[in-house]
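Morning!

As promised:
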Amino acid sequence: MANIHELLKAIEATPLSQAILESGVWFPVIETVHVLALTLVFGTIAFVDLRLLGWASRGRGLQALSRELLPWTWSGFAVAVLSGALLFISQPVKYWDNLPLRIKFALLALAGLNMLVFHLGAYRHIVQQEQAAPAAPRGPGTLALPTAARWAGGLSLLFWTGVIAAGRWIAFAGY
Amino acid sequence: MIIHQLSQSLLDTALSHTIQRVFWIVPVVQTVHLLAIGIVVASGALLGLRLLDRAATSQTIAATVQRFVPWILGAVAVLAATGALLIVGEPARTLGNPAFWAKLVALAAALALTLGLRQRLRRNPHALDAPTAAAASGLQATVHATLQGSRSAHWLGALSLLLWASVVVLGRWIAYVLEV
């Protein structure tokens, strides 16, 4: 791991890293952008997850809802990644050893995996069914979704809640 | 002076003592606060972008308002409850903080705009739709073929986005603005 620490120290020595750490204004500004972006990511994903669970937007098709929300999720995610990277390089050595940050990355990976599995599997079938019978909800005002969709929605909510909790914990992890 | 006394008496409560003593309460409450902000930001963004004709344009403006306003109100209730706990735990951090009071003003304005919008659309669901060709030429506009918003819809959308973003920004800056 010595190489990694040398790399982190090299990053820490860059003018950009120093500027973010020392200015006193840049860190809060970037962090504010990060918070705006991540709340947009979480909120838009939560609406899709709640739809998968059958708890919200039940009158709308999954494909329509996804098309409406997910472009904003991805835009927010891009901004969150960029602003998060800037926050990280302000003190890379410190953050590398931060346990909540590692947990956050693990949960992000799980959230991504869950989304990938769902999109390659159950999502396609649901979209096919919606296109075959767009105006035929199977329940009272609801398009019932298969169990796999409910699991995907529930797990997604769980993982993303964990991401936010771990992210919030980064600042509390004993310095 | 009043704020100082209020802070002191809040600090002396059993609830405040508990929040100060148990290390995980503040991060957990802040996490719930953040999750609720997520719901408000997503709902507020979709609503604002709908008014600007940039998102959710398959639905009318009235339907979009009906769809998202309950989420905003529910999440704001969660925010008020969790926010109150954070204040009780560390009163001086917020009550003596200009960023906090600015946030409350922005929140009040954002809520007023949102509720005003809902009232106006309850009375007339087409109040913010762009005038159709029929309406423009003075004919009875019973068919609202357009899902486009009017000019005032666009202004309200931009203002709403600005106000909700201000609430989040000022909230984050509570941690960075020193108490006066």
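Chain A touches chain B at residues 28, 31-32, 35-36, 38-44, 46-47, 57, 64, 68-69, 72, 161, 164-165, 168-169, 172 (CB under 8 Å).

Hope this helps with the figure draft.
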